[in-house]
Amino acid sequence: MARVKPKRRGPSMDLTAMSDMAWLLLTFFILTSNFREPEVVPVVTPTSVSNQKMGDDNMMIIKIDNDGKFLFALDENERIPTLERMGEKYGVRFTDAEKNAFKSVVEFGVPMKEMRSFLNQSADKQKSYNPGIPLDTIPNKNQELIDWVFEAREVNPDLFLAIKGDQKSEYIKFKTLIKLLQEKNMNKFQLITSQE
Question: CA 111, 145, 141 angle in degrees (round to 5)?
Fold first, then answer.
């Protein structure tokens, strides 16, 4: 007598739990991610073949825009103490409201003599006003940008310096910045470029 073979059924799987898990993961990643702060002055960086990633923590960034103006950006934790140190160095006293306004400034390009009026402006006016931080090549002249870097390093010695230059900016500006940093024995920094 012939055997009766039972019908084979393919395995069935309930994917309801999988879709729930996908939504939970998506929600988790959206809520815990850090969004990049918008750039005040857009800078188009030159390309390179390096694929080394820049760190997100303990960074200060010097930007050189296409007009050759210098801008400076700091981590949020170091902004107010660095501003206070710069105020002491340049004889400028800041109110608590001005310090709180500076804490929300992502990047700035304003000389110290104009900093108080800059901080008392609305956020929209602050974004459109960037005359550049002074950087003279003459020794012991107005080298505010270098002072910002070293005062920030006094606040947090673990800060790394990154330089982000626009591909249309003059090379002499970049060369001057590097020369002045090297004169102060700061030889370690990162260059921000785009992937080729």
Answer: 80
What is the per-residue pLDDT across 13-33, written as a single tens digit (0 to 9) for each?
777 888 888 898 989 888 888
Contact criterion met (CB below 8 Å) for 176 and 142: no
Nearest to 147 by CA among 92, 96, 78, 72: 72
What lies within 8 Å, CB to CB, of 41 at 6+ separation is 63, 65, 69, 71, 107, 109, 130
Hey, what are 19's tokens? Answer: 């879709």
State the pLDDT at residue 99: 94
Q: What percent of the chain has pLDDT over 90?
A: 39
Cβ-contact 181, 153 below 8 angstroms: no
